[in-house]
Amino acid sequence: MIDVSEIIDDPDFAVNYKVIRSKGMWIENRFKIAKQKILNFYGPVQLASPKDLGQLPEGGRIVGTMKFFCKALNELYVTHEEDEYYEGISDIVLYKRKKYKIVQISEWSANGFCRAFGVLTY
User: Fold this and answer.
1) So what's the architecture of 5-121 in CATH?
2) Which three-class secondary structure state does DSSP give residue 97?
3) What SS3 class is residue 2?
4) Where do the structural domains in the chain lie, given as residue ranges?
5) Residue 69: is it exposed, middle or buried by C-beta count within 10 angstroms (0-12/13-18/19+)?
6) What is the pLDDT of residues 102-120, one digit of tens each?
7) Total-model pTM
8) What does the angle CA 99 – CA 81 – CA 39 come to, to the nearest 5 degrees?
9) CB of 104 within 8 A of CB of 117?
């Protein structure tokens, strides 16, 4: 396998973007955000291709899907349990004044990167 991890930080390919990371809990059948932070990220961002979209469970959703690359699997998150009280909800990526909700993460650690798909939210 070819390790392309150094491309993730290469200024010829990478750009700055922000990630909103939130976690919360269910209270009276409603999800309440308890903690939220904004993180700075740096890595390649690409428009998702038709081939990429075929790999997503919601493959019919073709408008506004972007790929965000990072070095490690646990840098971007989809909804997951934090502990017995908190649940982490999918990260929201802020890129070019738009918000993208992370819907799937693919691990390519043998090649030195992970790929996350974000869907445009309104």
Assistant:
1) Beta Barrel (2.40)
2) coil
3) coil
4) 5-121
5) buried
6) 988 887 766 778 888 898 8
7) 0.76
8) 40
9) yes
